[in-house]
Amino acid sequence: MGVSRSRSLRDVILIFLGAMAMHLTSSFLWSSPDRSPESIIVKTSVSSHFIQDDYDQSDIVIPPAEVMRPVVNAQREASKERDATVQNPLLSVEPEKIDVAYELPETTIVAHAPGWTLFRNLYMSNGTLFIVSSEPPSRFPDIRLITSTGLAAENTPENIAARMPTAQDMDFLTPAQARARWGGNPDRWERNRVWSVEGNTYLFNDPPQFLNHYYHFCAELLVGAWAFWQGAFNAVVDPSNAAVTTAPPVHRAIFAHSDAIGWRDRPGFNAYFLRAAFPSVTVEVEDDWEDRITLTSATGVHARAFHFDTVLFSDRSAAFRGVICGSQNQRTAAEALEYMQKGARLTKWWWEPVRRGVLRFAGVQEAELDIGVKADEAAAALNARPFAQIDSTRPGALIKAQDIVITYISRQGARRHLIDEDHAALVLALTDMCASKGWELNVVQAERLSKEQQLALAARTTIMLGVHGNGLTHLIMIPVTPISAVIEIFYPTGFAHDYEWTTRALGMRHYAVWNDTYHTYPDAPNVAYPEGFQGVQIPVYPPNVVQIIEDRIAGRVPGH
Ligand SMILES: *[C@@H]1O[C@H](CO)[C@@H](O)[C@H](O)[C@H]1NC(C)=O
Ligand SMILES: *[C@@H]1O[C@H](CO)[C@@H](O)[C@H](O)[C@H]1NC(C)=O
Description:
This protein is an alpha/beta fold and 560 residues long. The protein has 2 domains: 61-84 and 96-342, no CATH class; 384-554, Rossmann fold, CATH 3.40.50. The chain has 20 helices and 16 strands. The protein has helices at 4-28, 49-52, 65-68, 74-86, 157-162, 175-182, 208-211, 214-232, 269-277, 286-294, 316-320, 323-329, 332-342, 352-361, 366-369, 371-381, 420-437, 451-458, 498-505, 542-553, and strands at 108-113, 116-125, 128-132, 170-173, 194-204, 237-238, 244-245, 252-255, 282-284, 305-314, 405-409, 440-444, 463-467, 485-489, 509-514, 517-520. The strands form 3 sheets. Strands 1, 2, 3, 4, 5, 8, 9 and 10 form an 8-stranded mixed β-sheet that branches. A 6-stranded mixed β-sheet has the order 12-11-13-14-15-16, with helices on both faces. The protein has a two-stranded antiparallel sheet with strand order 6-7. A hairpin with a 2-residue loop joins strand 15 and strand 16. Helix 12 (323-329) crosses helix 13. The longest helix is centred in the first third of the chain and has 25 residues, at 4-28. The model is unreliable at 1-9, 11-95 and 386-396 (pLDDT under 50). Residues 126-127, 297, 299 line the site of one 2-acetamido-2-deoxy-beta-D-glucopyranose (NAG). One 2-acetamido-2-deoxy-beta-D-glucopyranose binds at residues 126-127, 297, 299.
């Protein structure tokens, strides 16, 4: 995501962290693998109590270290000792390969929230994901909060039952049981039949049902995955250096229940975002996953498994079994993000690396990418807190009038839209307001613009407004400043959390407009889809919208 200069700085940080992580892990485990800087794990919960635990130890043979230390490791051990003395982590970039080793590293969970789990050393054989551990299953989260059968969701009792995971989806093995299946008995100098999938994998367990929408893929799945990934690694983003992150890179994304078309949306933003923000990610889909299943379906002496080094596993049905997503806001990403926020593990600019990756790809210039950071610096200089009283006409105000951009995304060409006269009156009122204040106004129909034009506009928008709908997904590209906001117009009494939660998650204010009134956090209405919600007679009273915008830009506290 960075130019070569910034990337090299990030690499230095990663190598430094990698060296620290290696030092920490090697003090826990006598057989610590050499970690490449690509696969650092900052949280080193690979704890020694897994070996000391007295649960079900009778059948676990733990040979003395000399017996298990294979000859192939001798050279690496020597170089590791050298590393320890010369402190040069570049000498140890060669990753550990499970498939030539004599031992299987145990599965650990670095972080978990309903629907989102970051594993180290996860195994897959014949379509079942295996947690290999000498810990009892009760020490792990309930698998219903990790995974599902990957079927499309319907709101029927039969379907809810059919999505409940079984031992065929995810199961537990002790190390002895794993060796009994896949070989690797050190007493017999037998190598295992486990093949390593190195590096960092995002494993998405969802069917196309919600993958093939711009909002659900980019603003929900990617937002959730990135928040969880950043938080799990306690990543720090440096806004003054092109928003480079200290989080490790992602090497592959696997859509286990979707074909190649299934994760793509019709306008093409999903592929655009994934390739722009993560240009080196390799994508595997259902067919590829089926290959891995078929190749590990044999029994006896040909029983095999794949070993995944580091996996962020996500499952929509499992997220809905969590309290936040299931009963508060129906946002799978909320489970990931709020878990990390509660632990204070997300830093302010956590989304910025993805946002910038996409916008730089779209051709947006650096100065515009910095709008949020610059406003933040100005706010600090003015000692202004968000929502504090700021006089926008005062010299040196937070954002100059000519830099304020109001973007109205019109849906008049789509099925759900405003009453035609109300739309016309709204455009007139916005035009008057912007002319008198010196602000820029854009009234756009997204489908008439190229992807680049849409993204470039979002990248400089201060306040985005429009009727509830997919076009508002571009809010994830708005620069976050103390006055940024999204105004979403609903059919009166209608409400959904899609854009409301997402706007707030990114640090902006959201207003739900019902004609001549509005709601804003913490005054959120109940989710409702009244008659008329999807229709073409949605009313809006323009003076209400104008007042919201003027108050927001003047820094007046909402509702006061
Ligand atoms: C592999 O999985 C299928 C079901 O998906 C099952 O019928 C079969 O028995 C399994 N094979 C082995 C060796 O476990
Ligand atoms: C919208 O609000 C205006 C101003 O209060 C009112 O005159 C109009 O009747 C309202 N429209 C609807 C459909 O409620």
